[in-house]
Amino acid sequence: MKIKSVNLDQVAGFSSQFPNDNFEEIAFAGRSNVGKSSFINSFLDKKNLAKTSSKPGKTKTINFYKINDKFRLVDLPGYGYAKVSKKEKEKWNNLIHQYLYQRENLKEVFLLVDIRHAPTKQDKEMYDWIIDSGFTGFVIATKYDKIPKTHLKKHIKEIMKTLNIDDEGLIFAYSSTTSHNKNVLLEQVEVIINS
Fold it and tell me: How far is CA 109 from CA 55, 76, 88, 135, in A?
């Protein structure tokens, strides 16, 4: 699949602001410091589309990106966010919950984890929800360029063990710096949208 056009279609701080149409959606979930914005910018080949920050938890809304006027990629607020109030956390949790549980357009959810560390308890909870909800269970292991290539197998095995994954083919090691595995992921997205 070639990405010919990308538009920030909608920014939603409330469920009433979700786009009201039939475009299919693929969502990306992950911890607030996993590099989700960097991944989206790299994957869509747009430098400053998703705002990156040295302070985790920058994304406080659900951002809908329309791709090729055919489908949407959806950037969910990061969980495990650091310095925000309890009230703010609850608001984000409710927003994510409403999107994941009620959105009929949602076709697949990818979980992003940091390849350098074992997935956290919250990652495991999110992954279990993804599986229990009938989604495939794809994982994007970000920051691949930050580990020695000889350690890749070890880190992938750690992710598989922690998240209880049997099929190594569900995990994509990704680097936002080098775009490692970008074409493979683009093909996977195309398969999902066309299935």
Answer: 24, 10, 23, 7
Task: List all residues 6 or more positions away from 40 whose beta carbon is below 8 Å from its beta carbon.
Answer: 28, 49, 50, 65, 73, 75
What does the DSSP assignment read for 60-102?
-SEEEEEETTTEEEEEPPPBS-SS--HHHHHHHHHHHHHHHHH
Burial class (CB in 10 A: 0-12, 13-18, 19+), 74: buried
**Structure confidence at residue 77 (pLDDT):** 85
pLDDT confidence band for 118 (50 / 70 / 90): very high
The span from the CA of 183 to the CA of 14, in Å, is 33
pLDDT at 57 over 60: no
The token duo for 176 is 């936002």
CA distances from 162 to 32, 74, 120 (A): 19, 25, 8
CB-side exposure of 76: number of CA atoms within 13 Å? Answer: 29
Task: Give residue 73's pLDDT.
Answer: 97
Per-residue confidence band for 125, with pLDDT thresholds at 50, 70 and 90: very high
For residue 151, the 8-state DSSP code is G
Q: What is the pLDDT of residue 84?
A: 65
